[in-house]
Amino acid sequence: MSEFSFSQDRLRELATDVLRHAERLGASACETDVSESVGHSVTVRKGEVETIEFNRDKGIGVTVYLGQRRGHASTSDFSPESLRATVEAALSIARFTAEDEAAGLPDAELLAREGMDLDLYHPWNLTMEEAIELARRCEQAAFAVSPLVKNSEGASVSAHAAHFVSANSLGFMGGYPSTRHFISCVPIAQRGADMQRDDWYSGHRDPADLSSPEAIGAYAARRALSRLGARKIKTRQCPVMFEAPLATGLIGSFVHAASGGSLYRKASFLVDALGKRIFPDWMRIEERPHLPKGLASSPFDDDGVATRDRTVVADGVLQGYFLSTYTARKLGLPTTGNAGGSHNLIVAPSPDAPADFAGLLRQFGTGLLVTELLGHGINYVTGDYSRGAAGFWVENGEIAYPVHEITIAGNLKEMFAGIEAIGRDAVTRGARTVGSIVVNRMTIAGR
Fold first, then answer.
1. Any idea what the Cα angle at residue 244 is, between residues 372 and 446, rounded to 5°?
2. Would you say 427 and 245 are in contact if contact means Cβ atoms under 8 Å apart?
3. How far, in Å, CA of 236 to CA of 222, rounded?
4. pLDDT for 66-97, tens place per residue?
5. Of 60, 221, 237, 27, residue with least CA distance to 141
């Protein structure tokens, strides 16, 4: 870990010092996070370097408790004087904070006690010159697809590494290094006055798992070209297929609605939905926090609670929410180890899903294939859903023509219940892996 300025042992020493300061100054409990991150990225546009960024960050967050009163403070200064001042600041905040019956550390028996190597650390020893060359190759591959690809919003390459230590006064201490690397491209195709853009990217823990820059650029260009000649369609109701990258966002909307913060505030249409069928009776969603190299893998959550494999949805029935220690107490439920978010959600394809995307299109028949969404028109209290969209009109299982400047609308509760198929063309975006999703009916607002 030569790219880091501090060793894991040094981060542990700093965390220990924070806990000792808090105890000496009268805190009834304390938790702390000590972290450091490094990385660089480059963007090339039309063969010329447009941006170069380097980052090196570090920080310590301190949360203290005085009974049921909580205070938090943070600093980027690792000196002993700063650590003590930060603990004092957190305590000062706690003294003037109202008591909260849900505040406090997790139950000790739930904390992760054993280390676990999830193979999350794969540094990319990439010089800036090499990163620029990769970005140029990516963009050049896009331009080489067709003379109609005349412009670009750029190709980017980034390499990032981080490590951290979390600890609390119940004896928990854990941490590990991790990496995230990306290659992306955003080409623009033009025919006359008609201009269309699209993008594609590859992101992994291990640079060896990244798609080649040429493959990313060429695929992004073909996507942009396929959108030339886009037209509006008449307002109607019809089946809608969310392409796999967008389907991950649809599952993200489910996670948001099923998360503790939304639930205890009564700001979700899934309040009191535990144990109820909200998806078709064949649908299954698993959470797998211990996948090697997983983008959302972790042996413990942000509270230090040990993570575990679980089934979130079985036979279409919601088996569990996404709860932190705090939100679980607010709801009178046990924590699910999801402080900080979900961990590697795997959505199973529908039982009769064809082997590939082309087969899913044939099964889909006629309707709208959505490949881009715009705006954030989701009301999680009611489930009402309205987004700007672009994509393709599909006739008899074949793409007929591109479509743009439309709006798709529905209600998430009805959309989830109306899922007719999930493809085997699964992609992973962040914490979610899912294939294209077919919803039986939505309203399309066009011309």
1. 35
2. yes
3. 29
4. 999 999 999 999 999 999 999 999 999 999 99
5. 221
DSSP state string for 3-14: T-SS-HHHHHHH
Question: What count of other Cβ atoms lies within 10 Å of the Cβ of residue 336?
Answer: 25
pTM more than 0.90:
yes
The amino acid occupying position 227 is R
Please check the confidence at residue 417 and state whether its pLDDT lies above 60. Answer: yes
At residue 1, does pLDDT exceed 50? no
Amino acid at 101: E
Can you list the alpha helix ranges (DSSP code H) found in 365-422? 412-417
Contacts of 24 (CB under 8 A, 6+ apart): none
285-330 residue pLDDT tens: 999 999 999 999 999 999 999 999 999 999 999 999 999 999 999 9
Q: Which residue matches tokens 């893998």?
A: 297
**Confidence at 262, pLDDT banded by 50, 70, 90:** very high
Closest C-alpha to 221, from 153, 290, 323: 153
Residues 34, 344, 110: CA angle, nearest 5 degrees: 55
Cα 72 to Cα 84, 102, 276: the distances in Å are 13, 16, 37
Give the C-alpha separation, 232 to 31, whole Å: 55
| Range list of H helices, 3-102 | 8-24, 80-95
DSSP H or E stretch at residue 48: strand 48-66
What whole-number distance in Å separates Cα of residue 207 and Cα of residue 373?
29
For 351, counting Cβ atoms within 10 Å of its Cβ (0-12 exposed, 13-18 middle, 19+ buried), the class is exposed
433/426 Cα distance (integer angstroms): 6
> Phi-psi category of 64—alpha, beta or left, where left has phi over 0 and alpha has psi -120 to 50?
beta
In the DSSP assignment, the letter for residue 208 is G
- Residue count (the chain): 447
Pairing mode, strands 367-378 and 69-75? unpaired
Q: Mean pLDDT, to the nearest integer, of 240-246?
A: 96
Which residues does 247 contact at the CB level (< 8 Å), separation at least 6?
347, 422, 434, 435, 436, 437
What are the tens digits of pLDDT across the range 430-441?
899 999 999 999
Question: Can you name the residues that pair with 398 across neighbouring β-strands?
Answer: 395
DSSP element (H, E) containing 256: helix 244-257
Q: Identity (one letter) of the amino acid at 283?
A: M
